[in-house]
UniProtKB/TrEMBL annotation:
PANTHER family (UniProt xref): LD22376P
Top-rank taxon: Bacteria
Alphabetical list of Pfam families matching this protein: HGSNAT_cat
Chain ranges of the Heparan-alpha-glucosaminide N-acetyltransferase catalytic domain: 24-160
Regions that span the bilayer: 68-85, 97-115, 127-144, 151-170, 208-228, 240-260, 266-290, 302-323, 357-377
Biological source species: Larkinella insperata
InterPro entries registered for this protein in UniProt: HGSNAT_cat
Protein name: Acyltransferase family protein
Alphabetized UniProt keyword annotations: Acyltransferase, Membrane, Transferase, Transmembrane, Transmembrane helix
Gene Ontology MF terms: acyltransferase activity
Keyword Transmembrane: yes
């Protein structure tokens, strides 16, 4: 990662301020910032044992607001690709795309290794790893294929994934199924990655290999949205088309849910339609309010998160682990990690409800990051990945 100062007139990097003509597409940065702030909130509760239901993932089938965050980010990656990669001069882009993907994958693997660096059991999949793979696939598809082809690929990926998961028998088990440990994706993860899977299960992974295919469709849906926003259609018409497309996707999700249930861990095709539909509607609303109607004053706090999205995600995962390496002695002779000690000292005594204390801890973590990121934003500094 490379820090860089940005002059006031400079167009920020591909994950920062984008432009439609001469106007910055602040709606994209705002939407990204909202998503990243929500990601930090749900990933850093004060106490993992006391979390309000909307801030947890669905146990299996179904969804919660928390389940929307990661696919929203992949959708935003797709929109950013449509703005960041040039339409004409694309020579040499494949190498740059591959390099950035490797960096993102490496950062995710580093988080999984830290602090023990036990390569024998390290989890290979992960959030940043999936972002890297989706970015790699969707960027290459964007520069190599036409918009119509990208639309057909979304349909092909979603239908193909459904057919594979619903009808292909699972080796060493039997009929196709959608259970956590016995579905075809879990079998493939165990076969290819062995014990290098999610530490909670070690026999399946929510960011597994097979479910990366529909995740690519999520990124491609963002590319189509970005292509529409870059078009010469009237701005109001763009917002309407985004919203209508979102409605159609939600209708498809409702129908498909009847026989291929919405499920984040499996990243089912109905889940892709649900989350892409809601992301389209959210982007349409942001675009209409911010870039069309000009209501921009409220956006700065969220843009501060948006322009350093990968940086804050990486560090917000790393810093708690560093804090837990610092041990604070207790009166009974035991010790606590510094993060747990801070929570027990400054939050638990002041809240009657452990759920409120846990939420307050998470909100404080977000606030601390806001202060840091807003200071960087004011100085026009981003960290380029």
């Amino acid at each position: 990662m490379e820090p860089r100062a940005i002059s006031p007139g400079h167009n920020l990097n591909s994950d920062a301020h984008q432009r439609t003509g001469q106007v910055r597409l602040l709606s994209l940065d705002t939407f990204r910032g909202l998503t990243v702030a929500a990601m930090i909130l749900v990933n850093n509760p004060g106490d993992w044992g006391h979390i309000y239901a909307p801030l947890e993932h669905a146990h299996w089938h179904g969804w919660t607001p928390t389940d929307l965050i990661f696919p929203f980010f992949l959708f935003i990656v797709g929109v950013s690709i449509a703005y960041a990669l040039p339409d004409k001069t694309r020579a040499g882009l494949a190498g740059k795309i591959a390099k950035r993907s490797l960096i993102l994958f490496g950062l995710g693997l580093f988080l999984n290794l830290f602090p023990k660096f036990d390569f024998s059991t390290v989890r290979i999949p992960g959030v940043l790893q999936r972002i890297a793979l989706v970015y790699l696939a969707t960027s290459l598809l964007y520069i190599k294929t036409a918009t119509r082809t990208q639309g057909w690929l979304i349909g092909g990926l979603l239908v193909g994934y459904w057919l594979i998961m619903a009808f292909v028998p699972v080796p060493d088990f039997g009929p196709a199924n959608l259970e956590p440990e016995t579905n075809l994706g879990a079998w493939l993860d165990r076969t290819v990655l062995g014990g290098h899977l999610w530490k909670t299960s070690r026999i399946w992974d929510p960011e597994g290999l097979l479910s990366t295919l529909p995740a690519i469709a999520t990124g491609l849906s963002g590319i189509l949205a970005g292509t529409l926003l870059k078009s010469k259609r009237p701005e109001a018409e763009k917002a309407v088309w985004l919203f209508v497309a979102g409605c159609l996707a939600l209708l498809g999700a409702y129908v498909w849910n009847g026989f291929f249930p919405i499920n984040k861990s499996l990243w089912t095709s109905s889940f892709v339609l649900l989350t892409s539909g809601l992301a389209l509607q959210a982007l349409a609303l942001c675009f209409w309010l911010i870039d069309v109607q000009g209501y921009r004053k409220w956006t700065k706090p969220f843009v501060a998160f948006g322009v350093n999205a990968i940086t804050v995600f990486f560090l917000s995962g790393l810093i708690p682990r560093v804090l837990n390496m610092i041990r604070v002695p207790q009166p009974d002779g035991s010790d606590l990690g510094a993060k747990e000690w801070l929570y027990q000292t400054f939050f638990v005594p002041y809240f009657a409800s452990p759920y409120n204390a846990s939420l307050a801890g998470a909100l404080t973590f977000v606030l601390i990051w806001f202060v840091i990121l807003y200071g960087m934003y004011q100085k026009k500094i981003i960290i380029k990945v």
